[in-house]
Amino acid sequence: MLQTTAGAIPTIIDALPPRPQVSVAKMPDPKQKSVQLQDLFFRALTRCFAFLVLAILLGIIVSLVYGSLPAIERFGFGFLVSSEWNPVTEKFGALVPIVGTLVTSFIALLIGVPVSFGIALFLTELSPPWLKRPLGTAIELLAAIPSIIYGMWGLFVLAPLFADHVQPWLISTLGMAPVIGALFKGPPQGIGVLTAGFVLAIMVIPFIASVMRDVFDVVPPVLKESAYAIGCTTWEVVRNIVLPYTKVGVIGGIMLGLGRALGETMAVTFLIGNAHQLNASILAPGNSIASALANEFTEAVGDLYTSALIELGLILFVITFIVLALAKLLLLQLAKGEGRTT
Description:
mainly alpha
């Protein structure tokens, strides 16, 4: 009897209706809600900052185009290929400033890139430990010197040195060469495109050298030590290990220096001569877009004169954009092999 009753108990329990589920509402955590609100605010704030940069860039482009419209309508494409600059007759051309900007920047890179590479190579591979920090700090301090100081130093120290020693030697030697002789003709005046480009080279060296030094430092030591272990020289290690591994960073540093050279104003204004004359010699005075704007914007009388100067600024913006776009395409191609050695 007891066994029958005990066996029936589970059946009775199973036959009972299920107990109703009591749903308990989960109270929101005030701390978690506060964190979510902060995260949303942070995302919205950073998004606003990003779009603010685009808005500023768009505003600059629109203002440059709007200010350039009178000159664009008056001169059209001829503004880019004309070397005439006469405020009296209101005939303006941008060829001389464009050529001066490109030539001085090319001279700056031609001198600055090998020197920067040598500095970075010495600091990362050859310098004793006690010299690395003070020498690296000295290189970085060069970037902190105002450009007007470089201009004054170049005008009062470098230009007389070039006029008395460097330019006469270039004229007497390279000036007689059959192909490149035209680049080194004319009287030794001290100031000119070459002097401006040389000072620009000194100004871009800290930027390029600092970037090259930093990217050379990220090369895994095991790669270099393995190369040294099998008997490679320092140059072989740099050529076959360091440069292939860091080529994207090196090109980026060079582009940084080029951007600095294209937009430099005061140093070039002091040394380039500010002459609206197209000359094949790099010893002769010339002009650049930045120096023309610095010299003449406050003296511009009339809407057309002001518009021509604004169009120069627009041209400089376009040149910089083209250079950066080409550099970005080059970096994208080089990035495919980043970190690979040959």
